[in-house]
Every structure is written in C-alpha cells, then in structure tokens.
Design goal:
CATH class: Alpha Beta
Number of helices: 8
CATH architecture: Alpha-Beta Complex
Number of strands: 13
Oligomer: single chain
Helix content: 25-40%
Mean pLDDT: 89
CATH topology: phage-related protein like fold
Distance between the termini: 48 Å
Number of domains: 1
Shape: flat
C-alpha cells in the first residue's frame, strides 16, 4: 500500500484493526479473506451447473484426453473506501480523565459507525431476492409463514437445503424471523422433545435439527431518518432467512463459497493537528477501511422471504 500523505498513528490504527462490534454479523455471513495488495483484484465467479455437465472421459490407447475447464469466470472488482472523521478540541484532550484517550475513543466511535454501514450493505445483499437464482428463493405468505402455528417450517427449510447444489452449512436470520422459527410448535417439539405447546428452541438446537454448522441472527438497528430529525429506528435485518454455504478456506481465486469480503490492506486511523479548531486548536481524527463485498456463487444458497408476518 502506498504511503499516505498524512500521519497514520500506529496506536490508533491498532484500535481500528482490533475494534469489533460483537452484535454485528457482517463478518460472519460474508467472511473476510486474506487482504489483497491492490485496490483492483480478480476473483472467480462460479456457475456450478457447468460442473455437472459430464464430458466424454474415454481415452484411446494413444489418444489425447479431452480437456475441461473449471466452471468459473475470471471477474475483476475493486475495493471501496469507507471512513469518517471527528474533530476534537485541544481542551478536550487536555482535560480528559486519566487513562482516557479521546483520540482512541473517537476511533472506536468511528469504526462502530463504519461497521454499521457495512452491516447495512451486507444485509442488503444477503436479504435481496435478486441475489439468488430463480429456483433458490421462496416468498412465504399467510398460513405458510412461520408465525402461523399451522405452517411447516421443518419441511420448508429442509426442502430449501436440499434444493441447493451444495448443501448450505449456515443459517442467517433476522431477529424477528428467527424468533418466529424458534417459537414454532413443530420446531419446539422437534428440538425439545415435548408436545410443542410451550418453550423456545435455542440456536444450537435448531442448527443440529437441520444439520447446520451455525445459526447466525442479525440484531442491529439503524436510524432511518435524516440528521436533525427525530430518530426512527428500524431493523437492519428483516423478517427473512438465508441458507448459505460458506467455505472458511475460500479466497478470491480459490474455493466455492456463497460470498466473501475482500479487504485492501488493514483498517487505518490517523490524526492531524489543526490550529483552526476552537481557541486552542485541536485534532482531526479519522479512521476507516477499504473492502469489497462479493457474492461469488449464489447457487449454494437459498432465500426464504417474509418468514414472519
């Protein structure tokens, strides 16, 4: 990465790299891979249907073998920069309590907002029907929704898992969609081995029921009003469920997986003194990261829209 024309502070950069909001799930559903060394990079996009087209494998005694190609196309993408800055008057720095670094706290605040913005981008990809092939999505309504006790979530989810070329190993659900699933009488009965009239199934039990590695639940909120208006909070993750195959070993040009996040370098943080801030000057602190979120193989995922009323 080229040298920046501003002072990158190692201590602040360390905070930016280490800081993670544990309530956000973007890094779980589109995992980060090894950082690339340039903003523009190449990756494989897979069409798994080609992998099931069987060529003639018979070879004559002196004949040549038929040549095949891996079912992927070489695509080009580039990372985008995401960052924010704050202004800290010098008197705030001078009067900070012992052990409190206003610059470090500012970096944490910035990275929390950068991460929430990323969460929104990821949710808009994962919970977007256009992301998935026509045969890998279903919209539930009325009596088929999991909020209806007469619906059949076990059959619906199992059929969705079986419909994928590679069986998904993760479930990603919005909180309200997951709550409807976890309280459903048939799920409670199957997980808790009771008549299903009361109780709630845990994530681990639902994962075991459907032979999944993990159930991931999105909890975060965002303010949908503009700055200056009264806050109006909405959930980032809607009442939907996505079943995803995520390969922990995948890289941009290696391994089939639903999707990934490609970072360019590591997050950075910097600070610069500005004499024009207040009476005594101050510091402008900024932080951010460069990433690209990708869906590389939608065939290994299934989307259930509106699972709850």
């Amino acid at each position: 990465m080229a040298k920046a024309p501003f002072p990158i502070i190692p201590e602040l950069t360390g905070i930016a790299i280490a800081y993670r909001n544990r309530k956000l799930i973007g890094d779980q559903v589109l995992p980060r891979v090894t950082p690339v060394s340039k903003e523009e990079f190449k990756y494989f996009k897979y069409d798994l249907s080609l992998g099931f087209t069987v060529p003639d494998t018979k070879v004559g005694r002196k004949g040549e073998l038929n040549e095949v190609e891996f079912p992927s196309t070489d695509e080009t993408a580039s990372t985008s920069d995401h960052g924010l800055k704050v202004t800290i008057p010098q008197k705030d720095i001078d009067n900070a309590p012992p052990g409190i670094d206003p610059r470090g706290k500012s970096v944490e605040f910035i990275m929390d907002l950068v991460a929430l913005d990323r969460e929104i981008r990821v949710a808009n990809m994962i919970f977007n029907p256009a992301t998935y092939p026509d045969n890998n999505k279903m919209t539930l309504a009325g009596a088929s929704q999991f909020s209806d006790p007469n619906s059949d979530p076990i059959r619906i989810i199992n059929d969705a898992l079986d419909a994928c070329i590679t069986r998904p190993n993760k479930m990603c659900a919005g909180r309200l969609g997951f709550s409807a699933l976890a309280r459903h009488p048939k799920i409670v009965s199957a997980c808790l081995r009771n008549p299903g009239q009361s109780g709630i199934a845990r994530r681990e039990e639902i994962a075991a029921l459907f032979e999944l590695d993990e159930v991931i639940v999105g909890e975060s909120f965002l303010n949908i009003n503009r700055p200056g208006q009264a806050a109006s909070l909405a959930r980032v993750w809607g009442k939907h469920i996505a079943l995803l195959y995520l390969n922990p070993m995948a890289e941009p040009k290696l391994g089939v997986t639903f999707g990934m996040t490609v970072p360019y370098g590591t997050p950075i943080a910097a600070a610069k003194y500005d004499e024009k801030i207040g009476l005594r000057g101050g510091e402008r602190v900024w932080a951010g990261e460069s990433v690209c979120e990708l869906v590389t193989c939608p065939d290994v995922a299934y989307f259930l829209q509106d699972v709850a009323a």
